[in-house]
Q: What sequence folds into this?
């Protein structure tokens, strides 16, 4: 028991150290204003009652504003995880530092988890803080706060999507042999889920005989919600949609729970497994 | 009596090389590695691990450090046999590893590097400055890694190996990038550590630099240990002796005639002429040089008014020892690449 507590203490210390080191990097200096502009700016803009939003998009409640801002979280914070984590393992491996760390009398699982928490929380903490600031901006514009439940769901889902990305990034970083392949794999994984996923959904729908020419139809909405469970971005949106009333593609809670469980534990498990097998 | 801290008995290891196939993209084959390695690291001993590039020195170092898992063989720590696949933490605590060519770069500092390793080892961080001072980085504690010289990077790597005062030190090419003064200091530090009872294994492909500091050497070639023991004894065993080198300020035309005046048997020599330097390299006789023969050769030249400005013995290089031990030609030993590896799928 005391061994486990010692391990947890060590994990906490190492994660804290990792976060501190990451926060003071040039990458973070670039990322922080981007997060501020994307998340804070979008919350401010979407909550402006006089704003004319394109494509009949409307945000009438604070949570709807947060839901629309979540698109900007996907474009900024997840990219932040890519920036911080794409070479998290490959850089140490190529420099030889990983060999020194692997020689130390500490389990590789703890080292790997600290790396994972380090990358995740480096982006998640500023994102959550900026999201909380956004709540104040929304209040300023709409004179209303989201409910505690809505706020918790937003923070929970946002934290999770960043954890999923951190696991994916570190997993691909452990596969990369050099900086070039680390960038390619890291950014490639981000592009796949952020830019190309809709194309994959449409192609799959066409192959399986679902009408993909009209994205408004119910059959396609139901199909896309199922495909989205296999994408971190899609699942993030589905989790937030669970709290919206005027959405037609709701999935049962049990399906969302299973997908969330799998996305939370499978990529991180694979990363830790790979980290334990890694040749330094 | 000094005790064996770490023993390897008949250890085999082969690298797994990706060899994708149409129906099995993750297919791997057995590549090069090391075979049938048995050695003991004894408390208080400094052992040199010597071999040409690709001999398997780094692979052996990584196996000893637990970074690679042997395919076969036995590992014994402090008299206790341990599982190949799972090294207990107490055995990891006994080892300090300095890998080859660590690229220290970025805005981090030696302090932060050591602080992280102290934390990983669950050690208190209150004497990091003192610790870095021991390896000569006392004044560079908070400088960025980018601003440190290659020699200082090596010192930082050594500091990493010394954390936790391990009983066994594995140093892979530690002299790379060190200037002669730093090398001397480094040798002194290692000798002191050996006196404290540490077992030290240093790998290098430069025999001369190891000669001054090691108690014995392990000679590796093509993934196998081909000879072990004291360097002097190895030389005696294989009849390897220094060649004699004489340098003259001008060319000697009647060299055969001059040397034929002496009573020398089967004297083989080579001459080379570069600008004003005329150099004669006389190969050592089978049993080595005796003082009298050397004197006679010198007298032979002086009596003919040929005064050498330099009269030395050439240092024996690794390639010559490898050639003697393996029985291969010097050129072949130097240039041949390994073609071993069983390629078993």
A:
């Amino acid at each position: 028991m005391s061994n486990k507590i010692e391990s947890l203490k060590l994990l906490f210390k190492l994660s804290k150290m990792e976060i501190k080191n990451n926060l003071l990097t040039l990458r973070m200096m670039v990322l922080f204003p981007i997060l501020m502009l994307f998340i804070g700016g979008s919350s401010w803009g979407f909550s402006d009652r006089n704003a004319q939003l394109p494509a009949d998009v409307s945000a009438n409640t604070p949570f709807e504003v947060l839901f629309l801002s979540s698109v900007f979280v996907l474009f900024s914070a997840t990219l932040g995880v890519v920036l911080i984590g794409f070479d998290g393992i490959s850089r140490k491996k190529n420099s030889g530092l990983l060999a020194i760390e692997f020689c130390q009398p500490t389990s590789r699982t703890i080292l790997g988890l600290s790396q994972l928490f380090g990358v995740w929380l480096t982006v998640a903490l500023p994102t959550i803080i900026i999201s909380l600031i956004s709540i104040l901006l929304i209040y300023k514009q709409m004179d209303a706060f989201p409910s505690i439940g809505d706020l918790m769901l937003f923070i929970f889902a946002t934290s999770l999507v960043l954890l999923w990305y951190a696991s994916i990034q570190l997993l691909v970083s452990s596969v990369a042999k050099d900086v070039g392949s680390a960038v390619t794999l890291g950014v490639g994984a981000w592009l796949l889920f952020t830019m190309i996923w809709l194309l994959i959904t449409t192609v799959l729908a066409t192959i399986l005989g679902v009408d993909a020419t009209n994205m408004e139809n119910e059959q396609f909405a139901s199909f896309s919600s199922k495909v989205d469970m296999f994408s971190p971005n899609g699942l993030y949106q589905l989790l937030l949609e669970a709290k919206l009333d005027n959405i037609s593609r709701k999935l049962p809670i049990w399906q969302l729970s299973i997908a969330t469980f799998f996305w939370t534990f499978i990529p991180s498990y694979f990363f830790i497994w790979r980290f334990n097998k890694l040749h330094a | 009596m000094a005790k064996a801290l770490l023993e390897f008995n008949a250890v085999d290891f082969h690298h797994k090389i990706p060899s994708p196939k149409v129906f099995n993209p993750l297919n791997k084959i057995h590549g090069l590695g090391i075979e049938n390695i048995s050695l003991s690291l004894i408390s208080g001993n400094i052992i040199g691990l010597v071999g040409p590039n690709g001999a398997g020195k780094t692979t052996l170092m990584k196996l000893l450090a637990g970074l690679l898992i042997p395919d076969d063989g036995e590992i014994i720590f402090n008299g206790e046999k341990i599982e190949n696949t799972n090294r207990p933490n107490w055995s990891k605590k006994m080892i300090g590893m300095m890998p080859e060519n660590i690229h220290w770069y970025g805005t981090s500092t030696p302090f932060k590097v050591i602080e992280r390793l102290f934390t990983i080892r669950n050690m208190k961080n209150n004497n990091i400055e003192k610790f870095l001072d021991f390896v000569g980085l006392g004044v560079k504690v908070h400088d960025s890694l980018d601003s440190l010289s290659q020699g200082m990077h090596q010192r930082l790597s050594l500091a990493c190996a010394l954390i936790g005062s391990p009983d066994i030190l594995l140093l892979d090419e530690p002299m790379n990038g060190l200037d002669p003064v730093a090398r001397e200091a480094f040798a002194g530090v290692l000798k002191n550590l050996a006196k404290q009872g540490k077992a030290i294994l240093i790998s290098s492909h430069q025999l001369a630099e190891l000669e001054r500091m090691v108690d014995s050497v392990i000679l590796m070639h093509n993934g196998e240990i081909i000879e072990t023991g004291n360097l002097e004894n190895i030389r005696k065993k294989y009849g390897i002796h220094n060649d004699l080198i004489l340098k003259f300020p001008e060319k000697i035309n009647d060299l055969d005639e001059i040397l034929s005046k002496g009573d020398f048997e089967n004297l083989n020599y080579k001459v080379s002429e570069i600008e004003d330097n005329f150099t004669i390299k006389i190969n050592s006789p089978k049993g080595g040089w005796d003082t009298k023969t050397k004197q006679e050769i010198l007298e032979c030249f002086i009596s003919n008014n040929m005064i050498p400005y330099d009269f030395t013995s050439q240092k024996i290089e690794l390639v010559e020892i490898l050639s003697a031990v393996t029985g291969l030609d010097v050129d072949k030993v130097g240039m041949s690449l390994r073609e071993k590896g069983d390629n078993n799928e």
Observations:
- DSSP finds twelve helices and 14 strands in chain B.
- Chain B has two domains: 4-104+148-238, 244-313.
- The CA atoms of residues 3 and 54 of chain B lie 31 Å apart.
- Chain B has a mean pLDDT of 85.
